[in-house]
Here is the input.
Amino acid sequence: MRLVVVSAGLSVPSSTRLLGDRLAAAVGRATPGETDVEVEVVELRDLAVEIAHNFTNGFAGKALSAAQEAVTAADGLIVVTPVFSASYSGLFKSFFDVLDKDALAGKPVLIAATGGTARHSLVLEHALRPLFAYLRAVVVPTGVYAASEDWGAEGLDGRIERAAGELAALMRGLSATKRQVRDEFEVVPFAQQLAALSPAERAGV
Amino acid sequence: MQFGIFSVGDVTPDPTTGRTPTERERIKAMVAIALKAEEVGLDVFATGEHHNPPFVPSSPTTMLGYVAAQTEKLILSTSTTLITTNDPVKIAEDFAMLQHLADGRVDLMMGRGNTGPVYPWFGQDIRQGINLAIENYALLRRLWREDVVDWEGKFRTPLQGFTSTPRPLDGVPPFVWHGSIRSPEIAEQAAYYGDGFFHNNIFWPADHTKRMVELYRTRYAYYGHGTPEQAIVGLGGQVFMRKNSQDAVREFRPYFDVAPVYGHGPSLEEFTEQTPLTVGSPQEVIEKTLAFRDYAGDYQRQLFLVDHAGLPLKTVLEQIDMLGEEVVPVLRKEFAAGRPADVPEAPTHASLLAAARKEVVA
Here is the structure.
């Protein structure tokens, strides 16, 4: 199964990336035996310029395209953002702004965030969860928020294991039923389109 | 294969002088560009249609009629004609009129416009964009092909015993291209009718163009008009040339960096790598254009955008000179080499008339 971690951490090393890595490792542990979990990490920091260009240009550059394809093809996603101004970072949102709106439909997603204090922990519920609900992703019940103080305290490991377990279960369940990826080049036969406009069709004849 | 110029008709300040041309200057510049295209032996001039500043060409057949009077060989076309918001009755009449004045040197490209607000300006609803393109074009075809039309549709008043005038020259309607960047429905429409498909690839990576053209070719064959390789494909491309590549880059960069369509985004180098934009020597333009065939197959029409980013008219005319003298003669030769014999040329009035006569005899 393919697991993609989208990390919007900016510093190197980054606690946002660290949280993403720990969640990914926990998903691996929660998926013993049957299938290996292939993990790919998308660092949005490296894509920042291409994401901005996608806004001005209308199309994605090479590295951004590759990241979009990886995310679209993944069986599960872990998305991690630092909290900026009481919400996800602008870079984090921008990545999902330039992703096809159907790319995440039906996809299991684990939401996670990092911040300087625990006071922002509900950002998961008031910012990230609605965003992924809009994108029609299946968001696991447990979101993981890590404040600076959590890294040395008890409790974070437990939340990571619980969230990862939920994501692993959903990935196993949902990857069995192959999601339908929309083909943007699909066409409705022209005669059908033409017929839909004819007066007879509208009158229900 | 046909080569030509297409113009958007934007009024853009020249960033190196800060001067903005007047509308009159820009309109006359477009005419000068068309006349230059004929002078240097290019085949086609196509004008855009826009109904908002900073664009000037709102009345394409007026401009093309004026150009027709001053040219002898040039094919006059559009890029594009708004099939969504123009009344198909008026399109049928305007372009039939132009056919007579230009002795058949006319074709046109259907499009849906580049701005949402244009729909209400002409009393239409943008939510019906694709449906308007479908219904209006179906009516347009009948108006050109049937002398007396009874018609009823969803978007305009019914027609009873209506004859659009003048009738198409020699009873042969102008050839139609359908221009689209990302709507597979339009590729499907072009394929259904066996019309041409123009992919305006100028801001798009090659991979996207390849998929749209492949879709059109596949559906063209599906509808029995010929093999996929025989479908009628047109592509765009935008260039800036100087004898030496470095001079071209140096001169164009200040235009690129602030142009409404290019500026404030990727660098000139990134943009030229990912899109058809070529800034360099004529040889570089030749190489990049020839490479279009690698992903679009043998195609019929290549239009160049040269009056972009606020370049002064004098510079634009120099570009067309270089196209005519150094680029297009090589492209004609190279594209002809290795082109299968059963890949047709783009239809013209003469070829369509000959085909129609053959059909009558048969």
